[in-house]
Amino acid sequence: MSSSISERIVSICSSLPTSVKLIAVSKQVSAQAIRSAYAAGIRDFAESRIQEAASKQAELQDLPDITWHFIGHLQSNKAKKAVEQFPWIHSVDNLKLAQRLDQLAQQLGVSPQVCLQVKILPDPNKSGWSVPELLADLSTLDQYKNLQIQGLMTIPPSGLNDPEILNVFNLNRELAKKIKEQNWSHIKMQHLSMGMSGDYELAVQAGATMVRLGTILFGDRS
């Protein structure tokens, strides 16, 4: 399996612009498979469950230059562990959570890099701000000085065709541009975390700076 992982990684990396970071989504993937991806050059890995991630992080402590990204829905009672374990959190999806993370970051003396999760189109199956909600909350978010707000994360609703998916990604880019033009003190819009195994090429076309790829690298999971 390790050779096929490395072949897939080499193939995809060669097709990505240098401006795009490949984040390997390693949920439900063994530490050994992560080692194979690491050997192929990947240094950014994403997990969606705190406990599952903790055991892998412990097992992979000999690889100190891995950057861990949290991409799952984050409940308040798991927020402290997320701040302790993950330098990046892509799924900050509401103001209450952002406030909690900011408080924890101050207590722990860290400064996590975060993306704000936004629902570009209404989607009852996903967490995140609606566009109007996010715009209304920016002035409060800008006060959270312990968070490094780096950009936006979005996941299109399921069932869209390629032009519709591309439109979602384009709208996300335009929203980030609009926020950036408001010149907030602590809100940066340097990153667009968008695109997964089935649609990452569309995301890259729309200006993604980070793509989150799992199945296409590691194969199907249970």
CATH architecture: Alpha-Beta Barrel
Q: Round the Cα radius of gyration to an integer and report it.
A: 17 Å
Q: Tell how many strands the DSSP assignment holds.
A: 9
CATH superfamily: Alanine racemase
Number of domains: 1
Averaging pLDDT over every residue, what do you get? 96
**Helical coverage, percent range:** 40-55%
Report the CATH C-level class: Alpha Beta
Distance between the termini: 16 Å
SS class:
alpha/beta
Keywords:
9 strands, TIM Barrel, 9-stranded parallel beta sheet, 222 residues, alpha/beta
What features would you describe in this structure?
43% of the residues lie in helices and 20% in strands. The longest helix has 19 residues. The chain has 222 residues and is an alpha/beta fold. The protein has one domain: TIM Barrel. The radius of gyration is 17 Å and the shape is globular.
Note the topology:
Layout (H helix, E strand, L loop, with lengths): L1 H14 L5 E5 L5 H9 L4 E4 L2 H10 L7 E4 L8 H7 L2 E5 L2 H14 L4 E7 L9 E2 H11 L6 E6 L8 H19 L6 E7 L6 H7 L3 E4 L1 H4 L4
Helix pairs in contact: 1-2, 4-5, 7-8
Quick rundown:
The chain is of the alpha/beta class and 222 residues long. It has helices at residues 2-15, 31-39, 50-59, 79-85, 95-108, 131-141, 162-180, 200-206, 215-218, and strands at 21-25, 44-47, 67-70, 88-92, 113-119, 129-130, 148-153, 187-193, 210-213.
